[in-house]
Amino acid sequence: MKTSIVTGASRGIGRSIAARLAADGSRVILCARDHSALSEAVAEIRAHGGTAEALALDLRSPEAPGLLVQFAMAKFGQIDLVVNNAGATKRGEFLELSDDDFADGFALKFSGAVRLTRAAWPHLKATKGSLINIIGVGGRTPGAQFTIGGSVNAALLSFTKAIAELGLRDGVQVNAINPGTIRTARFTTRLNALAAEKKLSPEAAEREYVRNAGVTRIGEPADIAALVAFVTGPEGRFLHGALIDADGGATKTI
Question: Is 163 within a domain?
Fold first, then answer.
């Protein structure tokens, strides 16, 4: 039986990934900062017959990734999959964003992923496991309101390609998924603001958002979870060093 670590697993995409991996038979270690939300996610997985444990940590702390790996090894004795999903970055006008805003954006999503990869790598090497980074389309197509997120995501895309070369040597599969707009609590807040501004119903606001963004639809967390399950499963093993855009057509560049 495999053991998977999923960060940012208390809600949204990460929670859906953890639930899908557990449903497919993996033992799952969930990590996020919100202990209460993590407990709810674990209870939900267990209620459906899955095996899950959780550890509440702030992965911005340099020692936290190592503690997470130690926890996983103590609970299950192996690590077969690491999903680096934690980290949301601040949006806004560039001239209003501070050095601290940029530093905080890199601290969790980039540095947290790098440190967890380093801490887990010997165990992934031992199991010939998989690493998958959940990044975002802003790394390929940044925008004026997304200067922090675009920069962080681009750095993680480069890191993925670099560590994939190491994976060839050590037998560890490495890939990244770039979600587009996904129906999370953060998106719902943005959608409600658009609906209020345009005096539209939430349904009409969503249709306008989809039309203006030039995408097929808003993605669901389960869409990303299903892709993670495929990429890290036996049928997806040929994928290596891939940067996969799961965005409904939002990325228009090559």
Answer: yes
